[in-house]
Design a protein that fits this description.
This protein has helices spanning about 10-20, 30-45, 60-70, 80-90, 125-135, 155-165, 180-190, 210-220, 235-250, 285-290; strands spanning about 50-55, 70-80, 95, 110-115, 135-145, 195-205, 255-270. It is of the alpha/beta class and about 325 residues long. The chain has a single domain, classed as Rossmann fold. Helix 5 (about 125-135) links the parallel strand 4 (about 110-115) and strand 5 (about 135-145). The longest helix is centred in the N-terminal third of the chain and has 15 residues, at about 30-45.
Length: about 325
């Protein structure tokens, strides 16, 4: 890992989770919601798993729900914060403290790897995905959920505008997140087969921006960017941020929304039994016939009256 890849202060990530462990159940609503949605995807998989890993388990939220699925015989939980690991272990499944960037597991240790809202704090995401693929047995399944690039965009806008007004400059106050268009490539780069990436948007409302900031602190999702401002922020900055947030985004009832974009990664450790792409040129039917159109040599201009397609953006839905 090179210095250029050190986006996040991992010591700060651990410290935030350590601090949040004691009051975790008061602020774990997003983890619970995303865990439920991830387990819905596991329900759709027509097989059982002898051993599974929960990477970034926090307080054991996923493990509480896993018995309802009935597909996993043994589970090992893992979190970067010792206090979170101890809390998770109290639920019955074993747990250990270990960094997501340096997994302590032997190759082919698990049939299933799960991760809920933890991997967006990893500096070397491709490296962690490679480690996860290595610790899976052939034909083992990865199911992971992490925050995507549209997360917290309302707070990001309000903070940027406020900081420009108050200080005349900008600093990294909200973490960068992965983009959905990049995740499939990252899975392939890590050696996974049959990668699928989909997304949800979850919108939550709060009485005011300061209630949101308190919630993010309780969730251990506060800023851990390496280049974040280290000193105390000026009171005027957050006062102005709250004004801008309310002006730009407040709903008719006065409450302010915040958006969490959640990316779900599904992929398999390679195995000979998996579906393989056909050899180029082996197709038995022509695509042009299936589309009822005219095939033209490469470089020829198509008749604009043939095969006309109307493109448009489909609206996003919020949960």
């Amino acid at each position: 890992m090179t210095d250029s890849m050190q986006v996040f202060d991992r010591a700060a990530v651990r410290a935030h989770r350590q601090r949040s462990a004691a009051q975790w159940t008061k602020h774990d609503f997003l983890k619970r919601e995303v865990a439920d949605r991830l387990l819905d995807r596991l329900r759709d998989v027509n097989r059982s798993f002898a051993s599974a890993l929960d990477l970034g388990c926090h307080g054991g939220t996923l493990a509480e729900r896993l018995p309802e699925i009935g597909k996993v015989e043994r589970l090992v939980q893992c979190d970067a914060a010792p206090a979170m690991a101890r809390r998770a272990a109290a639920g019955g499944w074993p747990a250990l403290a270990a960094d997501e960037e340096a997994l302590p597991f032997a190759p082919r240790s698990f049939d299933l790897a799960l991760s809920v809202l933890s991997l967006h704090w990893v500096n070397d995401l491709p490296g962690t995905l490679i480690q996860l693929r290595t610790c899976l047995r052939p034909d083992g399944l990865l199911l992971a959920a992490l925050l995507g690039g549209e997360s917290l965009h309302e707070l990001r806008v309000a903070l940027m505008e406020a900081e420009l007004e108050v200080t005349g400059g900008l600093s990294p106050r909200i973490s960068p997140f992965a983009e959905v268009r990049d995740c499939g490539g990252l899975l392939q780069r890590a050696g996974f087969a049959l990668p699928v990436v989909d997304q949800d948007e979850i919108t939550v409302t709060y009485a005011d921006p300061f209630a949101l900031l308190r919630e993010l602190r309780g969730m251990a999702e506060t800023n851990a960017v390496q280049e974040r401002p280290k000193g105390m922020a000026r009171r005027a900055l957050f006062a102005r941020m709250a004004e801008i947030y309310a002006q730009r985004f407040a709903r008719p009832d006065g409450r302010i929304p915040i958006t969490f974009q959640v990316l779900y990664l599904t992929a398999w450790a390679p195995h000979d039994s998996q579906q393989q792409p056909l050899r180029p040129g082996s197709a038995k039917a022509r695509l042009a016939e299936a589309l009822d159109t005219v095939e033209r040599p490469a470089g020829d201009k198509a008749d604009p009256s043939i095969g006309k397609i109307h493109r448009g953006k489909s609206p996003k839905t919020a949960s």
